[in-house]
Amino acid sequence: MTPYEFGGRTAVLTGAASGIGEQLAYGLAARGSDLVLVDVDPTRLKEVAARIDRVHPGRSVQMLVADLSDRSAVEGVATQVLAEHPSIGLLVNNAGMALGGRFDQVTVDEFEKVMNVNFRAPFLLTHALLPALKATPGAHLVNVSSLFGLIAPAGQSAYSASKFALRGLSQVLQSELADDGIGVTTVHPGGIRTRIAENAVVGSGVPADEVEPNRKIFDKLLTYPPEKAARQILDAVAKRKARLLIASSAKMPDLLARLLPVGHARIIRAATSARVSRRTPQEVAR
Amino acid sequence: MNYVTVRDARIRYHETGDPSAPPVVLLHGIGRSLEDWSAQHDLLSADHRVIAIDMPGFGLSQRHPESATLTSLSDGVWQTLETLGETRPVHLMGNSLGGAVSMQMLVDDPSRVSTLTLVNSAGFGKEVTFALRMLAVPGMGRYLLSHIDGRTAPRVERTLYADRAMVTPERIAMAIKIAHQPDFAAVYLEIARALGGFRGIASQWRSQLLPRVARHGKPTLIVWGDRDHILPVSHLAAARAAFPAATWHLFEGAGHMPQIERPAEFAQLVRPLLARVSA
């Protein structure tokens, strides 16, 4: 496959208003791509678009405000993109949300919302936009999975399930789309300093006194700068890499998971201080 | 182009044909102008007085002081016609928002309407382009509408047609000129909010308006382009259900404005309707 050409092509990017997505937006603009930026937060999205306008006045930047947990909103985004851009060069499924709490501490609705944002939205968007990707010679698709798409620690049931699902889809597409000349990169970031912990939903059944400590532990693991992560992703796109692990916090667990398909879970548990409560709110009340 | 003053607002109109011939009135969609009907003047003016109007606050017309609603636009068009000396029953043709305004005009003054032609008209379902729904997001509407320029206007224009060759430099330039009118964003948002929100086009006004239109039993033609990205072609079925006596036509391979994308075919379709009542 020839290297991906960023210049003069349109990139569609979800979760573009903060974290890795925001940095990807700046990076794509700097490399000459026109942008369709999708996010649920209109205020931050406008700031990102305005900054790109200032720094790269030649780029076309379009904003689409959408809650990707809502199926009709995802379909709306796809219809809008197709109406305005018959061909797109790059689709980056980056938007994601986190949910803390053991499986029996999260509600079905909370679980489902995570699946909808992290898995259903990328699958719907990719399905709908595939004709536009195929219309561009040498197009590319990026799916941002996670470290938790490689390992499945306690307390991350919905998040891990969604990120394993996205990884599965992404790896299948990597094989299937090769015939169309479309490259696919599955990205597994480790602890990147983004707003994902700040924005994480905590399961309704998680005891209140454990929410803050757990959020802090999670937050402490997020140390890798998002601009560096974005640069690595765009370099991987240029080279058409199928898989990208970002930060040692992703690389070590990946190695362990491959060497010890089952046994790695204990090591991971011991290595991180994250603990998942075995108590229920009722027990706390007693 | 000509202007008349209607209640202190300068209203732009374009008129062709014999002033004594039966009148045809052409209404454009949201954020648009009478240019969307330009191709029909030559085709219809041989035996009609053809009047296209920039509705108050749209195109290059000034706004009226009251907030834009279907009723205020209906009033504005009726008053403009009076100012132009046209008090006979008219053949109303409305595209998109203009279709909804035509229906409101019929309900407001049925004795002055002879026929109704609805072209990819609003009023028949909640689904509408994501671009319009997004205007309802707090802070986004004004921002998006104040950033229509050489980069964004072509994108918007492309969504209107099936054939991209329709997106000419002249049309892009006109869209930018319209967007730079002082009250463009305000009037656009007023009517958009009056008719719907982020979830789509509201059902209340639609469910009230349609039965009242149907009750008058005016000869009605409904047309749609099957590649409409603004109001989906599925609304044609709803329109046919609401007006079972109406004739209808589906343009294959046309977008949101078949009256300029397929002008000759469009004129051919409306002529029997106009002739039926004129005779």
UniProtKB/TrEMBL annotation, chain A:
Gene3D superfamilies: NAD(P)-binding Rossmann-like Domain. GO terms for molecular function: oxidoreductase activity. It is an enzyme of class 1 (oxidoreductase). InterPro entries: KR_dom, NAD(P)-bd_dom_sf, Sc_DH/Rdtase_CS, SDR_fam. Keywords: Oxidoreductase. The keyword Oxidoreductase applies. Residues 9-195 form the Ketoreductase domain. Its EC number is 1.-.-.-. It holds the Pfam family adh_short. Belongs to the short-chain dehydrogenases/reductases (SDR) family. PANTHER family: DEHYDROGENASE/REDUCTASE SDR FAMILY MEMBER 7B, DEHYDROGENASE_REDUCTASE SDR FAMILY MEMBER 7B. This is SDR family NAD(P)-dependent oxidoreductase. It comes from Paractinoplanes globisporus.
UniProtKB/TrEMBL annotation, chain B:
The keyword Hydrolase applies. Keywords: Hydrolase. GO terms for molecular function: hydrolase activity. Residues 22-263 form the AB hydrolase-1 domain. SUPFAM superfamilies: alpha/beta-Hydrolases. The keyword Hydrolase applies. This is Alpha/beta fold hydrolase. It comes from Paractinoplanes globisporus.
